[in-house]
Amino acid sequence: MNTRITELLGIEYPVIQGGMAWVAEHQLAAAVSNAGGLGLIGAASAPPEVVREEIQKAKELTDKPFGVNVMLLNPNAEEVAKVVVEEGVKVVTTGAGSPAKFMPMWKEAGVKVIPVVASVAMAKMMQKGGADAVVAEGMESGGHIGSATTMTLVPQIVDAVSIPVIAAGGIADGRGYAAAMMLGASAVQMGTRFVVAKESIVHENYKQKLIKAKDIDSEVTGMSTGHPIRVLRNKMTREYLKMEQAGASFEELELLTLGSLRKAVMEGDVVNGSVMAGQIAGLISKEETCAEIIRDIVENGEKLLHGVN
Ligand code: TUI
Q: Whose CA is nearest to atom 28 of ligand 1?
């Protein structure tokens, strides 16, 4: 399989695993990279030394390329950005903001920089700043989202920039892969399907809630605070949305969600915790290895693209 992204990153298949907070740990990243995709460690809000340990553990499990996702709302983002360089990580993706201030340091160190963007304007800005590619992430995604759908965002970004574009949001099988390629993408990024991978360390309750989820089982919290987050509906989202509608303050809402993703992922509290997942959760029905997931997507996607149905 050759696309501009497999060439850029030196990987076998154009499949990238999302850098999901608490979920994208070294086990998952290494498994995806060993299966020929690009695994990512999600630095999220972890302290820089924890990120360093995760990188070192991934290096023990794979000799294939893997990357780190730097979440820009993290107050420690600058230290994490430096750790990535010190550890010789070759690829960085960023989320939830602009990585402009870290770009010169990463470029100088030869790190491939791939910002996740949710608009054409941001994609253009990132290209100007030296990004090697962008992930165009639609609002079908789980977690922190923008407002455009994958179907509309990908072709508009493809037309607006000359660097390769990776499509994300609502992709979980060969049909999504083929559709993304038809829109002009050079690779896909998937999060939700990898959450239920065998190598994913999330609590069994989280995996089961995701497997049971149907097409319309997610909600977006935080529209009013400017931090929209897609999560599966539960007691927490019902309370949150009720409070949000009643005009609760940012601080009150934060209190409700503080530590809530960790609660769901680590403790399996899928009632009061934050079960981030994309709208494609309804399509996901079983736990499989990363190698099985990647083989399914690429084989079926390529058949569709070449008219072998
Ligand atoms: O980053 C994500 N998804 C995430 S991060 C996350 S951790 C978190 N947990 C609780 C509260 C807040 C965050 C969970 N999910 N996806 C990439 C992404 N980036 N989606 C949208 C954007 C984005 C948004 C605005 C990128 C750039 C941007 O620009 C704003 C600016 O600074 O101009």
A: 97
